[in-house]
Design brief:
By secondary structure, the chain is an alpha+beta fold. The protein has a single domain, classed as endopeptidase fold (from Nostoc punctiforme). Helix content is about 35%, strand content about 25%. The strands form 2 sheets. It has a 6-stranded antiparallel β-sheet with strand order 4-3-2-1-5-8. Strands 6-7 form a two-stranded parallel ribbon. The two termini are about 25 Å apart.
Amino acid sequence: MKTIYILLTRSDTFLSKLVQLFTADPYTHASISFDECLQPLYSSARKNGETMFPAGPTTEVFHRGFYHKHQDIPCALYELSVPNEVYEIARREAQQFARDSDLYSFNILGLILCKLGIPFHPKYKYFCSQFVAEILCRSQALELPKDSSLMKPMDYTRLPELRCEYQGILRDLVRLRVPV
């Protein structure tokens, strides 16, 4: 058995504040990792770490970019135990998204339709929690309770297969997980 990690965060960016305004959820962003040090994290987010766009599938790390500058944000880390072959399929899917990142963009309309409960799957477009859901679905790591385009970051906190391993501030999680 191996472990897949799902990190939920809430930043103070415009988009995060907008999402929280509409959902009132404590977490507004989801990432997935295949390493206990959480490096790298895969998500659909800002590609350059600074500006909101361009956005789409990308890798996120703690020692540079967005997370390096925003370590005082709330987060929760969830773990999912899966068979080795499922883990490898999920990891390859995430790596493929990252390699082909230029083909993809952010599913901003999908974010709005998600709030309305309307599934929406435009080709090559994902928002963060949809991106994580796609990897979990494609690898058959987990059967989700709803369509991948309707998954919100907070939905991961309600999945019985996931175990919450940490809840607190990102800086403290980084100290616990990332070797110096």
